[in-house]
Write a structure and sequence with these properties.
- The complex is a heterotrimer.
- Chain A is α+β, with helices and mostly antiparallel strands.
- Chain A has helices at about 50-60, 100-110, 115-130, 145-160, 175-190, 205-210, 230-235, 240-245, 360-365, and strands at about 10-25, 25-35, 40-45, 65-70, 75, 85-90, 165-170, 195-200, 215-220, 220-225, 250-255, 260-265, 270, 280-285, 290, 295-310, 310-320, 320-330, 340-345, 350-355.
- A six-stranded mixed β-sheet of chain A has the order 6-7-8-3-9-10, with helices on both faces.
- In chain B, about 45% of the residues lie in helices and about 15% in strands.
- In chain B, strands 1, 2, 3, 4, 5, 6, 7, 8, 9, 10 and 11 form an eleven-stranded mixed β-sheet that branches.
- Classes of the chains: A alpha+beta, B alpha/beta, C mainly alpha.
Chain lengths: ~375, ~375, ~575
Amino acid sequence: MKKDPQLIDEQPVLILKEIYKSFDDDQVLAGIGFEILDREILALLGPSGCGKSTLLSIIAGIEPPDQGKIYWHGSQVDNIPPHRRGFGLMFQDYMLFPHMNVYENVAFGLQMSGIDRNVIQSRVLETLELVGLVGFGERDVNSLSGGEQQRVALARSLAPRPGLLMLDEPLASIDRTLRERLMVDLRRILRQLEQTAIYVTHDQEEAFALADRVVVMRQGKVEQIGRPEDIYRKPASIFVARFLGMTNLIKGVGIIDGDQNIIETSLGRFPTSKSIEGPAAVLIRPESAALNSQIGIQLQGKMVEKTFRGNLCQATISIDGSTFVFNFLSNSELPDAGEDIQLSLDPIEGIVVFQPDVDDLSSILN
Amino acid sequence: MFRSNLKKVTLLVAVCLFFSACNAGNDQGTAVQTSAQASPKEAPTLTVMTHDSFSISEQVMNAFTEASGIEVRFLKSGDTGTAVNKAVLAKDKPLADVFYGVDNTFLSRALEEGIFETYKSPLLTDIPDHFELDPQNGALPVDFGDVCLNFDKAYFAENNLPPPQNLEDLLQPQYKGLLVVENPATSSPGLAFLLATIGHFGESGYLDYWQGLVENNLLVVNDWEVAYNQEFSRAGGTRPIVVSYGSSPPFEVIFSETPIDEPPTEAVVSDGACFRQIEFVGILNGTQNRDLAEEWIDFMLSPTFQEDIPLQMFVFPVNKNTKLDETFEEYLAVPENPAFVNPEDISSKRETWIRDWTEVVLR
Amino acid sequence: MRSIIRNFRIQGSYRQAIAYAVLWSAPLIFLSIFYFYPLGSIIKTSFERADAGFASSFFEALRSESVREILWFTIWQAALSTLLTLAIGLPGAYLLARYEFRGKTLLRALSGVAFVLPTLVVAAAFYALLGPQGWINLVAMRIFGLSAAPIHLTNTIYAILLAHIFYNTTIVLRMVGDFWSHIDPHLNQAARTLGANRLESFRKITLPLIGPAIISAALLIFIFSFTSFGVILILGGPRFATLEVEIYFQTISLFNLPLAAALSLIQLGCTLAMTIIYTRLSNRLTRPLKLQASRISQKRLTTWKSRIFAGVIIFILLTLLVAPLLALLTRSFVRLEPGRGQRVTESPGLTLDFYRELSINRRSSLFYVPPTTAIGISLGYAFTTVILALAIGLPAAWALARHSDRSLNKFLDPVLMLPLGTSAVTLGLGFIIALNRPPLDLRASPILVPIAHTLVAFPFVVRSLTPSLRSIQPRLRHAAAMLGASPAYVFQRVDLPLIGRALLVAAIFAFTISLGEFGATALISRPEYPTIPLMIYRFISQPGSINYGQALALSSILMLVTAAGLVAIERFRIADVGEF
């Protein structure tokens, strides 16, 4: 059942164009727009307050946008009320109906579409089985554990077979150990149903693990769209890099030297394809440093701290008074804290170069 | 967070305690006020149970307290009927020494239940005999009021219509839709007016009369307040004839918003058109303060108290030596021959009369 | 090991039983002394007076066709009043629950003002608006060129219904509105995304969730209308009578105490039956809810649709609840218009005379009380009532909600509502008979007034508190307990903030009930301590326009005092959900 990205119909099913939304004087969405393809899982990734949940409400039809258009299968749906859009929305804190049992919760959407009672029953049982809740039908939703409630909520939003399923931080209130498992289950279920879905999260791991493509949002706008590996490899901005947990940033100056673009930094000169003249920033990937290698830029530093992280070892290393974090394989022979360390950097694959704006520049400490 | 809540709660409780303290303060305040002139030593206390229309002016009260050294405490117990019922129900362990306010429509009930002790006050000689309805002198007359038709003078002047002169006039077509009366089941003047028609037309004739009134489009409401303050044309309503009191016209002069020289209304006081309500006072059976009670009753029948009655209670003194305020001399029309119904009949037939009346007028 | 656990369990349940008994003790002692004992005494005395014994009075009552008619009328007018009040009140409750707008507190306070006004004053207000010379009729006559007033309200069932709606809408606004505001709107959005339209989402999600609050409100409105007295007498006119009116007539006018007692018991039986139905429904409907802070669930009126909706609802509420009040208020500043062609020196115009006159003891009456003192007395009684009613209402509500598995609750719950279904005159006479021995010789004590008010307020307090108390998820309390919190601390930190709003509603009901109560107060108050409604009655029952004007002026003062009190209590909110 594994889905091959090549098979995805390249025709977009949902198109968002220039969506604006303000509450009072607070602009939450500032002209956001993107497309989602059929059977695709799209993750909306961003820090809290970036407008992800508001965008879901607008797509679902719960909130009207101030401006902008939404197309579903080519026709505009802005004026269609939520119950006729045929979309599903799974809320962050599930919003299970407290006066109904598990079965009634899951059956709710089916009953609304006026399906035959027997069909409803088989569909509910089928969906409960899908989410691993066989035999839970008669249970009171108030007595369920957090993970079980999450599954009921998923089953409820899946049961009517929505054309588009939106999940708003579905794992946010689940504890860490359970989250891993539920994430795997969730991916399996969504793939199995070939469900077109928008998955909202502030956790990059979830986004990368689940989504075909990721939309990184910042202050109501799209910061970057792309496949998880592309975004990880080529973060479009310092914001994205930081949000993905990459912190090794240094200031530099861009020089165009004939047909060669070079960024000059305190660590050395980095060649780049971007033609930047003036202030620049260089991100050094945490996995890009090598021990005992003569290839690339040679760096001399001091080990500050090392932390064992399973198959990886995270090393905090001070170079020229600046602090960097690098990951090494656990079996690497690393010097102890306080000792000197010799590193080499891949100047091409190991870095990303940005043309920073003023805010970015002032926030880069190194 | 909770700390600030706690503060709020404490404040709320403090405010409540403050108000209850004020209340307690008031308590003492009025007690001092009523007994201000009493002797500083233990003043004997007399309790008087009465209805909620009872009132007395401060000077008259002080006059009694000063002269007798008795401190009087008043217990108001609802309207006349409720007060009488309370007195009856508490007769084994009376709430008070004296009961004032039973009228001739409730008199029999009080007498049958035996709540009063006989007391032949020397002042009875000053009271005309026709007020004394209790031959045993358990209940002594204090005041009277006549329930009569009142009409809005302006309405009749404006419409060039002669005002009605007697009960029979109301059956004429020219007075169609002009009358509002009160329900005898719920209103004291309503019952009084029903009794007037019974006294005037007799038990055999009164229902026919009422049938005539119904055909002449009479309006019945439950309370005097609604009839007089809302439906009466003088108050902005549509009915220029209302069942009220003979004393209402002079009170319109006394309690008008701006001084007026002539009452805007007038009472119809022809023979048999009014019913006289007489209020009585009596010593409650089982009192421990018989002497004080006698002293108080004598005071109520004396001119000092009797002269105070009209402005305080809107009824009139029975003591013939009483001098009335000149407004009353000028505008009060007292019927010479009000309709009369025996109190025992009122007590025994009240239910039947009201039921029959309801049958004819309201069905 | 096992025996230790068992021992512990037994101890636990033993402790629970003690807690349960302690909770019930205060309310039950209070009710026994001030309700059941007087009521039992008067009923016993009444039947002792029956010649043919206890049963004959019942037969007399049940055989009588007029009693059956009265009973039928009492029931259907109460049912109709309840339905209409809900129909008017629920959209208003929704507005107050879901939207934040300017003037909201004022709207809520004004709706509460209606609750306290004496019937005679409300009648005056309705006449000013809808009477034969009321301005609606005058306008209609002018517009359509009619010679007679088109609207006849006097002595009609419509007047009764209108008055019941006028009085009781605030119950819906407060009880349902406040509960509703704590229901997460995301639940409805969830239903909408699952294909439910607005109506379905309301019917299937909102209605069942706010159900307990709705039936609580409905029960109170039904019992209020069922035992309606003043409204029926004054606005309904002589053709309408409820059981309460008939009890009064039989007691006071005819002194037929056995029949009155039989009717009282029938009325109590109906109240009890209604309450039992209510309890059944309520137990079935109540679910633990995640209560949301109202400020999270409320939004502003931004879309034109919501603005129109709010406009229409506010307009209806204002017309129904505020216009009569305004009519009163203006009338208290206006000199009486001279009648047609009246030859008097008065001229219409604005005046403060009525207010000025209030502070003058023109007749130098011994019983004169200046208006400020009356306000103080009324407020004193009201605050005492709030404290008393909460002191006995909270433990009772607590026992009902927390120990819901106790079978005794099934019996006690309906019993708590009985004071509301008891005729004031019956209970007032009961006080006279029962409380006649020291230390309880309270027959003439001013403390009887707040006690009587507490009896009326008590059911309101319990009804306002139980839905919220029941809705607190036990898990929340367990969580707190697991963190080492003592029960008292759990109450302070978990329960109190969660029921803060409900506590406020309860306090407001107790406050307004006390400020406006007339029937019982008139029977037991001392002349030196009149409440404002008593003074209003004093003025309105005396002839002369200055007396009528003073009654209106005092009514306006009562409205003002009430509104100010309500706004103050609202400001005083002990806590809102989610503030911790």
